[in-house]
Amino acid sequence: MNPYAISKKVNEIQAPPDSVGMRFFNVYAPKVSRSDMLYRMLETKTATYLTRHKRDWIHVDDVVYAIATLMPSTYTGVIDVGTGNPVAVIDLAMKMGMGHLPIKEETPGERDITCADTTELRKLGWMPTINILDTV
User: What is the dihedral of CA 115, 48, 132, 23, to 10 degrees?
Assistant: First the structure.
């Protein structure tokens, strides 16, 4: 239902069978996230509304750690890279002092919850180390 998601799925289907496809969830990093990403908009106080969505926010350092874990492994296929613990947009906004924004109820094409299944990544010895609510 979402053109962005469709493009990602097409890439996974076209990938060679002996490759690794990493599905990065909501990657963030203080002061360096892209300006069009929600985390950055909350950080710079430019967000204009909130949603009731829950998202799997993963710090870029944990993404790098996941890649470093996968590189020497023999894993092939698609693998989720996230924390496995979704955090509500509203909770993040409250923690960042932006909880006063209006809530947009209708968001066609957006999933209510996105959450990585980190089972396979954890089998390789990886664990997330940074919790977004502990760092803002």
Answer: 40
